[in-house]
Design goal:
Helix content is 41%, strand content 21%. It is an alpha/beta fold. Helix 4 links the parallel strand 4 and strand 5.
Amino acid sequence: MRILVAEDERDMNRLIVRSLERTGYAVDCAFDGNQTWTLLRENVYDAVIMDIMMPGPDGLTLLSMMRDGGLDYPVIMLTARDGIEDRVDGLERGADDYIIKPFSLEELQARLKAVIRRAGKAGAGPYRLADLTVDPISMTAERAGKKLELSAKEFSVLLRLIQNSGNVVSREDLLSHCWNFEYTGSSNVVDVYIRYLRQKLDDPFEKKLLCTVRGVGYALRDTDR
């Protein structure tokens, strides 16, 4: 899943980004309203974490711009102000949740999972294919009842594949959803992580689920169907 963090306090921004990346999210960051709006128009996100008080268009203005422009990503607003009027204003403009500074990173993560779940971005429940189960909320995967020990990036790739179960997912699609916009390396990194994933997902089991479609991309398929 790909998240945008818009926060002009750079230390706070970096703390949030590192926390989310450790959990397995691909994260873009912005430090002012103009940069935030550029990223929102150029990329697709599963959720946005946005501070109210930013230079350039502030968070509330950006929220209105998003909703007026048809961008319906779940939004959590960050604010140092706990006045009811501010929260009502944000909710009326389309915010999904509010969190007041200072806050714990654990609380922010829990609220992020909640807004994604409510928005339906993570599906109604765990994804299943054959004997594979992938839970986007707990960020765990099991095959034949055995937990798969995946890195955060491996899980992100697996989640994108099972969200498109049966269909081919291109390398470019995996790059855009599982790596952030600052990544400038080769798309070969996708092949590397597919190899890592195959070693854990398929090699220990008789039935193979991860298919390579040469020149196009990859797919998860139940070959018995």
